[in-house]
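call fold(seq) -> C-alpha cells
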Amino acid sequence: MPEHGYVTGVDLSVSSLLEARSLYNRVYQIDGEHLPFSDTCFDCVYTSHVFGHIPLHQKSRVINEMYRVLKPGGYLLSSIECDSESIVYKRAKKHPELFSKCYVEQWGHYGLELSDANFKRFRKAGFLPVVELADIHKGYLRPVTSYKNLLAYKGKDAVLFSLGAMANWIEKSHVLTRAIDFVFGLLIPVSFLFTPQNHRVSFKITYQTYINSCFYCG
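ret:
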C-alpha cells in the first residue's frame, strides 16, 4: 500500500501502463468515457496533458465520468493544453493545413479549446473551481526551441518561418540555448502580467465536487 493511498492508473497506451504498473497498485487499458469503477470511489483524480488529445465530442462524457467516480468533496487536478488567440496562433491558422500538421497532428492535439471553453465544461459537469491558473511559461516567452515547428511555414509566412529558423539555429548551440532560456526565465514573470489568458496554451486546474451531494450531470 503506497504511503499516501491506493493508486489506479488509466491509459490507452500499453507502454505507459507497463511503466506505471511498477508504481501504481493497478492499471487499466481503457478510455476515459467508460471508467470501470463504482460511483464516488476516489478521493482524487489527476490527469496531465490529456484533454488536448480528447476529441471535442468526447470531452463532456469524460469529464462526467471523472465527476461520477469522485467522492463528495473530492478533487480533480489537471494540467490541460489549450488553443490560443495569440498573434502566433492567429497567423499560423491562416494556413489550416500547415496549422493542422504543426500544431494538431504533430502532438495529437485533436481537442484543443480556449481556456474559457475548457473551464465551462468542468463547471457544467458540476465541478466547483478552486484554481484556474495559466502556466507562466506558456505565453510568448517560452523555451526558445519550442518554435522549431514553424519551419514548415517556409514560403507561406516569412515571419513564422523566421521564428522557426531562429529557434532551429539557436538549438544547435547548447550554450546559447541555455543562455537565452535563462534570460527568458527572468523575463517570463513580467510578461505574464501583460499576456491575456486566452493567449496562453497550458493551464493548471483544481476542481472540487459538491460535498453535500453525489449527483453529477450526465
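The CA atoms of residues 130 and 162 lie 40 Å apart.
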